[in-house]
Design brief:
Helix content is 31%, strand content 24%. By secondary structure, it is of the alpha/beta class. The N and C termini lie far apart (35 Å).
């Protein structure tokens, strides 16, 4: 059950890159007291390990890197257990450039109406090849809400539960948000793109993990699952 004075849980999976996490926390610090950050530390070996919990910050520490999907699912479970009715998944490589105390409001409003919502769309062609990330819904091909910032109500997220959370862990890295978006469409969950004054710097962790190999390993899994279903 939702708890009074708790509105939005912001789940942020991290793996090292302390400078990004530190800046993200400082940029999110002015959000209302009914917001709370859930940092999921995937076995960081830098100063991330020294981060301490506070009234507006929870920390879940993993001994090793469990990657994006498992970390997000951990944060989601913790947020639900604490009574938050809305959950946002957010990358740590972000900067807030306006409305620092209220930029989440339009996303929550859309989530209240049952939408899966975020500021950018991932765009695919008809053969499911990634084209770009865009601030509006494309007129051709396929699209999904980009996973670097995606929000929904717990009721909506619960419809998407797999592997103990809304993200499928069959993808080690990449395609988790694409798969989520396609599953949402199958379940008739509407998605929406709403601009917010937040910039995503992009691929802070994946650069260190090896972008090409991660993508090439995940793409066949994604294609086998979806090529004849959308």
């Amino acid at each position: 059950m939702p708890t009074p004075n708790k509105k939005l849980a912001i789940v942020i999976p991290v793996w090292n890159n302390w400078s990004y996490t530190k800046t993200a926390i400082s940029h999110l610090d002015r959000l209302p007291d009914d917001h709370k950050l859930f940092i999921i530390d995937n076995g960081s070996q830098d100063d991330t390990s020294k981060l301490l919990p506070s009234k507006k910050l929870d920390i879940i520490r993993n001994k090793e890197n469990l990657f994006f999907a498992k970390a997000c699912n951990q944060g989601f479970t913790s947020a639900v257990d604490q009574g938050f009715p809305y959950v946002m998944f957010l990358n740590n490589d972000i900067r807030v450039f306006g409305n620092p105390d209220c930029w989440t409001a339009p996303l929550i409003t859309a989530a209240e109406k049952g939408y899966l919502v975020g500021p950018t769309a991932g765009c695919l062609d008809n053969n499911l090849n990634f084209i770009c990330e865009a601030p509006k819904i494309p007129t051709r091909g396929h699209w999904y809400v980009s996973g670097w910032c995606i929000t929904a109500s717990v009721q909506t997220w619960n419809k998407l539960i797999v592997d103990e959370g809304p993200f499928s862990t069959e993808f080690t890295f990449y395609f988790e948000d694409t798969d989520l978006g396609f599953r949402a469409k199958q379940l008739n969950i509407s998605s929406l793109i709403i601009p917010v004054p937040v910039k995503h710097l992009g691929k802070a962790s994946s650069k260190k993990l090896g972008v090409s190999n991660l993508y090439l390993n995940a793409k066949p899994i994604f294609m086998n699952k979806w090529k004849n279903k959308v």
